[in-house]
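Methods — Computational structure assignment.
A single polypeptide chain was analysed. Its primary sequence is given first, followed by the predicted tertiary structure written as structure tokens.
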Amino acid sequence: MFRAALLLAQLTTSHAEESTRPNFLFIMTDQLRIDAMSCAGNPWVKTPSLHELASRGVRFSQSYCANPLCTPSRFSLATSRMASEVKSNKIPANMPTTGVLFRAAGYRTAWTGKWHVRSRFPASESEGGDLPGFEVLKNAAIPDLTAVGESEPEGGGEKIDPGVAEAAIAFLKEKQTKPFLLTVSVLNPHDMCGTNEGRLASQLPVSLSDVLPAPPENLNAPNQTVTPIEGGHPPKGRKNTWQELSFRRYSYQYYRLTEKTDTLIGNILGALKESGLEKKYHCYFHQRSRRYVWLSSHHHEGGAL
């Protein structure tokens, strides 16, 4: 899928009519489960924006992520190369990104939100940033986390994602003079990684247990262990101190973060429509163990892809 998009950029000449060249909107979330959407049949979460995309496009339900960690996954998405090719957690100088290829084909290429192939959020190329080929969209709500090792603040997604969406919306409302490739990379529902049992108990009293999601069938599966040679991020099962109610509270909060992300995606798609860019488009859902990715092609002025 992504190689096809790259090939399209390479084959499009500078003499082509701008009005017939497709725009690309690429939306990426973090930590969104394969079944955490209404269109996947989940009764505990409402995701109308994602449901609409799924109804118009293709949802891959039997795919998997070869390397389910932030840096290698994002490296693959930005370069169309295998995650095993990333070295020193950065893109080699001789390996073009989609931004480099699309820009060479006459596109305006822009990025807003998390990057995490070294720096958490990318700096612009003029500032020595590590995301080649992309103009970096900024606003006051997006933190300056361009140094390697800097981490998002607690509750980062809820604080940062609205700014990321606002930057994308502002971009879509601009009068575009050339076709574009816009990547929107939001954090949530990643915030669940920092949620503890004590906070959940204070936010959700036991009296709400009748509306909490049912526990999974494998709730009591033992924690898995790995050897040092297998990596520094061992798989984790349920915390030993958590009971069934704790996990149900956790699931409830996770789905609320997912719904907030769905709302932001809906706002972005709404801006796309208001700007007259939503004429005909194809949607591709790439479902992975850590996050979902949506690649939608939208038209600059008209025509069909």
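Note: DSSP finds seven helices and seven strands in the chain.
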